[in-house]
Amino acid sequence: MKxxxxxxxxxxxxxxxxxVIFIGTLFKSFQGEPLPAEKSLNRDFTLVFQDEFxxxxxxxxxxxxxxxxxxxxxxRAGYYSKDNVFLQNGNLVIxxxxxxxNNKEGWYTGWIESSVNVNQKNDIEGYQGFNSRGGxxxxxxxxxxxxxxxxxxxxxxxxxNYGSDKDIxxxxxxxxxxxxxxxxxxxxxxxxxxxxxxVVHADEFYxxxxxxxxxxxxxxxxxxTDKYFYEYxxxxxxxxxxxxxxxxxxxxxxxxxxxxxxxxxNSYLRFYVDDRMTFEINSDWNIKQLNRVIKxxxxxxxxxxxxxxxxxxxxxxxxxxxxxxxxxxxxNDKSKNYDFLVDYVRVYKRN
Length: 351
Ligand SMILES: [Ca+2]
Ligand SMILES: [Ca+2]
Fold this sequence. Notes:
The structure is a single chain. The chain is globular and about 55 Å long. The protein contains one helix and 31 strands. The termini are far apart. The chain is 6% helix and 39% strand. The strands form seven sheets. Strands 2, 4, 5, 6, 7, 8, 11, 23, 24, 25 and 31 form an eleven-stranded mixed sheet that branches. Strands 3, 9, 10, 12, 13, 17, 21 and 28 form an eight-stranded antiparallel sheet that branches. It has a single domain (2-350), classed as Sandwich (Jelly Rolls). It is mainly beta. One calcium ion binds at residues 52-54, 90-91, 343-344.
């Protein structure tokens, strides 16, 4: 049940963060910025983890296929099924399709992750998963051309603290949601076709005991007791980029996450598409919370990998509604399959 609550919180948090991303200061980036012309990634790395997805079946000692069984397989407007995750032609395929034959009619999709945290790890004997504290993380992938169905490569702290009462506030050092690539297609009618959004979120869960300020919105949780401030609205930074041929060809998406434990001013997160740096956050990363400017810094805890395809968005109260930010999935041809193809996942350490 703990996990269910965690995800419910995450759903609320992400919804708000997403709304702010598109309504707030980033409104202009609806159109998407072009990728820089010049490649700038320094590939002076040593490989420390790879999955080329060249086998016949997914390596379940590295990856957990999440099916949200504790939530009736549901997250947002998609049902999660292990059958929608498989290997084919050297790629990981996360397939999204509409099914009328299952007992629950609707959109089915898939989710894999590599957490080794005791609360989230796979129950398969011998499971090892993978996490890393810093490094260069990259996939080569092609995302489906589908409204309301969005692919993502992202990372989360592998300590279960993020979004919980253990989350250290006013700091990203205890971990952040690092969204290396997401492919939203639309937002409330504004088409985001051929766009990707690198985003970093932190501190997205506040207890009412921390602040006493009328300027923030309060919601009541499902028990009707605890209240959480929505000030985490501002606890993110992100951008939107136009990627030509996003849906018809493979591209690399990566983040160079560098931690300097001796001189933190050297630490950074740099995001890349096809070796072109799109977006950087450094150790001076500031966010504004309750009229205070807070230095969030760069995450400094091990994080695990996630490859997911989600369907639809959510409303503010966490109720699952189709297409509240990325478009209505039911506008797609329901007879087709929508496949997120991942050629590889590779993780490197700087030399
Ligand atoms: Ca924090
Ligand atoms: Ca491959």
